[in-house]
Amino acid sequence: MSELKQRLTDEMKVAMRAKDKARLGAIRLMLSELKRVEVDERIELDDARIITILDKMLKQRRDSIQQFEKAERQDLADIEVAELKIIQEFMPAALSAEEIDQLIDQAIASTGASTIKDMGALMGVLKPQLQGKADMGQVSQLIKNRLN
């Protein structure tokens, strides 16, 4: 079992003992999504893949928060914010803006990217390094600004 999945399972037990329903619900959501992927693809997930799945869950929460706030449903947005915070606890530490800029510079140098047509190659190099450590939408925007 991967280290991250084991940590999730242990945290679920702690939340059960503490009778922390909100935390328990969020952790169960994460574990059920991991289980769904394992069953669908008939694989055992490693930490890198788990981070990718959790990153996708974070993106879904951010989108939901925007939609709920637009619809003036702050009660529902608050639930999503709480889940988002719990999911983030299991993600690697976020990179600073300077670290992201350095990685983009290195990727541009290594791929020889010079125009927006090179965007795919750059994202291919950067995604494994940044997944779960940076908002890929913002990284994409930074690259576009550099290449234009």
Question: For the report, how would you describe the main beta sheet?
Answer: none
Mean pLDDT reading? 92
Q: C-alpha Rg, in Å?
A: 18 Å
Quantity of strands, as a count: 0
Counted by DSSP, the helix tally is 7
Write down the CATH class of the largest domain: Mainly Alpha
CATH third-tier fold name of the largest domain: Hypothetical Protein Yqey, Chain: A, domain1
End-to-end separation in angstroms reads 45 Å
- H/E topology pattern: HHHHHHH
Query: What coarse outline follows from CA principal-axis ratios?
Result: globular
User: In terms of per-residue confidence, which ranges show pLDDT below 50 for 5 or more consecutive residues?
Assistant: none
Give a summary of the structure in a few sentences.
This protein is an all-alpha fold and about 150 residues long.
